[in-house]
Amino acid sequence: MRIHILGGRLIDPASGLDQRADLYIDNGRIAAIANAPAGFAADETLDARGLVVAPGLVDLSVSLREPGYSRKGTIASETLAAVAGGVTSLCCPPETNPVLDTPAVAELILDRARESARTKVFPIGALSKELAGEQLAELVTLRDAGCVAFGNGLVEFSDTRSLRRALEYAATFDLCVVLHSQDRDLAVGGLAHEGATASFLGLAGIPESAETVALARQLLLVEEAGVRAHFSQLSSARGAQMIAEAQARGLPVTADVAMYQLILTDEALRDFSSLYHVQPPLRTQADRDGLREAVKSGVISAIASHHQPHEADAKQAPFGETEPGISSVDILLPLAMTLVRDGLLDLPTLLARLSCGPAAALRLPVGQLAVGAPADLLLFDPEASTLAGENWFSKGRNCPFIGQQLPGLVHYTLLDGRIGYRAHHGSHR
Amino acid sequence: MSPTDAKRPLQLNDNGQLRHFLSLDGLPRELLDEILDTADSFLEVGARAVKKVPLLRGKTVCNVFFENSTRTRTTFELAAQRLSADVITLNVSTSSTSKGETLFDTLRNLEAMAADMFVVRHAESGAAHFIAEHVCPDVAVINGGDGRHAHPTQGMLDMLTIRRHKGSFENLSVAIVGDILHSRVARSDMLALKTLGCPDIRVIGPQTLLPAGLEQYGVRVFHDMQEGLAGVDVIIMLRLQRERMQSGLLPSQGEFYRLYGLTSQRLALASPTAIVMHPGPINRGVEIESAVADGSHSVILNQVTYGIAIRMAVLSMAMSGQATQRQLNQDVEEQN
């Protein structure tokens, strides 16, 4: 299959490319940029005039819910939602049932992904068995089964010594750990950021120190162990600042933030809407602004959807009895484009945080528009808009942005040179 | 799930009348005054030989208590009975939920039994909002206490107590003492006092029992009991739960009493005409000295009496507001 992408604005943040040019795909790979290879005869030409042609987005956290929670989502449904949102590569966290702590589960996920996934799927394995934070999982075996990194979600290790040993073991084999920073004791029972809103609503608080205390401990242990570490889902400005300080003293740590954390604050909880129940919690406007600045400066090099689809029942209860999480990978690109609209980022920087940034953090072989690289591409119209929810592929509709008009409209997503998603919409320009 | 219509708060109908009673947040002063005035008129009913008025005749009020309560449940029952309603009380904590039925299903079932009003107490903050918004918006929902969030009828009965004993709120100093962090009563009291124009609201307690962001209520924070009580007209004591010691918020009941217990000595620092209130049940010797609880400044038992009148007022107003809304909806439908 040969595809000619005609007249788009090619943006490749990894190489700094930003020019209007044609792009040629042959046999699943990018064959040439600007000038057609000799004798190239296209089977299909995509008219990309007026569109941006960028690397397909790389999302470091999309809960696929398989195995174990197929009422919330399946590999088929959630990867379809992902391509609609511009994503061609994603990491799925280990919180499945059974937990992704054995090669059998990794193989199951990868087998199903081969059958039904619309994106590339890179599983993140459990750092500890059952994610219990006690006994180490078989990290090397899991790596050989296809896990690209290891995390323990929001569950902290039972004691600091076990965490230290896990980091040292991972360092031995140059494995990457994905760390969430939330101190168990400080966050226990908490439902919302400890502040005026939580107080007013009578919701138990999760203080900022729940993040910073855990982060400080982890950073010191990461430094000592010399392990590759990526910090996931930062929620506070102070946390981002601590990452910046660690990077400044030469520690090669990376970090990501949930897209929704760059938009929402704890004020959104005022009506007790369970759609805003997330963990770690939405924090203050100052936190949101601090996170946005860290994304701009590159301290946070990756924006992820942290997509967590739920069935309707999971959100149908008083706030504290609902399950946390937002379903949003369907609209990852349009949500992210709000950062360009708001003047925070230029388009190439935004795309860097969504492609080569996350790919580099976990050393994934994706996220670039290079000749010879797999043709994982996103074609979108930056001037058009998307009505969130108009097309929705995730099984989870637990998304507070549904109904909003957002900037940017995905036209095509290509995976290995094949069209994985073609938008069927009238122009919203 | 739809977000609350910003133009029409969840608990008001299109005419701005009460149709649910979930929280004192966002209710205008006129509405709070109306509740107090209505309750005043019902106090006379309580004093009559025949204590019934027919306002809710033929209506069914369903008390659904997911959390144990004696006083609140009983006064709601009495209030509904004095309004001539049929009353059912369910202690759900011991029945459906232990069988795995969700709150959603429990309420839907009760709605199907043609209940006209739910009085709900629940351990989760926001439970009453959830029911009013997502479960049965056409049945009036009265919040009988939700988690730490709100206990609006208690808040209003406290306001009625203050108004009846102090006349008005304009020149008052009110101190709320103790475990503010876990107290839905304190939150409702602070909101009500602010709305009703009380110029000096004080909260007194150790930092471990004070929530973050208290400044949003327009209150002054005191850690020292003597300083905080100086010259106040009203003292609202809060109940201290035993769990607070286990969770490391306080060293002991003894030390709490030593620092924040209301003793006769400390009461003397307040205005000579100060009143002492407590939402009950009181812990003698933990937050309040027996002599103070039973003394001449105490209006703790009056609060219970006023509680029935407040609940009658809220039940009757919400029932009427809900009926008005149904009528308004019907008119709109007929026009279409």
TrEMBL record, chain A:
Domain Dihydroorotase catalytic, chain residue ranges per copy: 52-236
GO cellular component: cytoplasm
Pfam families according to UniProt: DHOase (PF12890)
Record-level Gene Ontology MF annotations: allantoinase activity; dihydroorotase activity; metal ion binding
UniProt EC number: 3.5.2.3
Keyword hit for Hydrolase: yes
Transmembrane segments: none
Keyword Ion transport: no
Class of the enzyme per the UniProt entry, highest EC level: hydrolase
Keyword annotations of the record: Hydrolase, Pyrimidine biosynthesis
Coiled coil regions in record: none
Entries under Gene3D superfamilies matching the protein: Metal-dependent hydrolases (3.20.20.140), Urease, subunit C, domain 1 (2.30.40.10)
InterPro entries per the UniProt record, alphabetical: DHOase (IPR004722), DHOase/Allantoinase_Hydrolase (IPR050138), DHOase_cat (IPR024403), Metal-dep_hydrolase_composite (IPR011059), Metal_Hydrolase (IPR032466)
A biological process term (GO) from this entry: pyrimidine nucleotide biosynthetic process
Name listed for the protein in its UniProt record: Dihydroorotase
Source organism: Azomonas macrocytogenes (Azotobacter macrocytogenes)
UniProt lineage: Bacteria, Pseudomonadati, Pseudomonadota, Gammaproteobacteria, Pseudomonadales
UniProtKB/TrEMBL annotation, chain B:
Keyword Magnesium listed: no
Positions bound to L-aspartate: K99, R184, R239
InterPro entries the record matches: Asp/Orn_carbamoyltranf_P-bd, Asp/Orn_carbamoylTrfase, Asp/Orn_carbamoylTrfase_sf, Asp_carbamoyltransf, Asp_carbamoyltransf_Asp/Orn-bd
Functional pathway: Pyrimidine metabolism; UMP biosynthesis via de novo pathway; (S)-dihydroorotate from bicarbonate: step 2/3
UniProt entry tagged with the keyword Lyase: no
EC number: 2.1.3.2
One cellular-component annotation, GO: cytosol
Aspartate/ornithine carbamoyltransferase Asp/Orn-binding domain location: 171-317
Limits of the Aspartate/ornithine carbamoyltransferase carbamoyl-P binding domain: 19-163
Residues that hold carbamoyl phosphate according to the record: R71, T72, R121, H151, Q154, G280, P281
PROSITE patterns named in the record: CARBAMOYLTRANSFERASE (PS00097)
Subunit and interaction comment: Heterododecamer (2C3:3R2) of six catalytic PyrB chains organized as two trimers (C3), and six regulatory PyrI chains organized as three dimers (R2).
Family per similarity comment: Belongs to the aspartate/ornithine carbamoyltransferase superfamily. ATCase family.
UniProt name for this protein: Aspartate carbamoyltransferase
